[in-house]
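Problem 12. The chain below contains 296 residues. Write out its predicted structure in token notation.
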Amino acid sequence: MINLKDRVAIVTGAGGGLGRAYALLLAHYGARVVVNDLGAGAEAVAQEIIAAGGEAQAALCSVTDATGVQTMVADTLKVWGGVDILINNAGILRDKSFVKMSLDDFRLVIDVHLMGSVNCCKAVWEAMREQKYGRIVMTTSSSGLYGNFGQSNYSAAKMALVGLMQTLAIEGGKYGIHANAIAPTAATAMTSGVLPEEQLRLLQPEFVAPAILALVGEDAPTRTILCAGAGSFEAANITLTKGIHVAGNPPAAEELVARWAEVVDREGEIVPAYGFTQSEIELKKAGYVAPEKKGA
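Solution.
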């Protein structure tokens, strides 16, 4: 059973679209919800939750405003005594091919998606560490995981959020903080005009929202990239192949090129537990044997 009673959740960009769907579903399962957005939509969603018998408050600030985000979290702690769940959902699009994209548009998308999430995570981090509990969800994208024409800025930001999620999950693990990422496909203001109408009808935000519940409950995983859309759910992984070892000092580039098929062969690939897994594997293949620990 999913029960979020008395849990406090902050959802950014929750004045409409996916954020609204997340906020309503979290409230339905008992969470007290801070509805963050820039405009009147945040107030409307908060009132919608209250009218349905839930608890909610609106917080009008941009996630790019670190001071405003800190104030939002401080107000939440004052009113409800904690922050258990953070859903980093706020985002924008500035799509153009890389050759036509201005650096200002590149920076803006990075600032909203990546630095906006950093601002929010930083604001809740100490409170979650102190209470030894937290659930953080980043919003990544298939564009970040796999690339997409005309979205170099968006793709860069979304993949960066995966790296942020991975490290926060490692650093927060001993404090009961779980960090995950969601890659949603949904019909929102951001995707209007991008996909044909018959597809958009199948991609309602409400069909993505259940994924959030799986990522924020007591039994939530950590370091999961969960893809969701049209009622379907998949997990994405960043893997490492078995690869090869090329002898020599330095290794011969010709051998690497000649054995390229072995390098990219995915049989036996793994999902590394942490970044140093790569160097550990490489050193082992090179013949390095770690010294025994004293007292072992």
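Discussion. Residues 239-296 form one domain. Students who got a different answer should revisit the alignment rule from Section 12.3.
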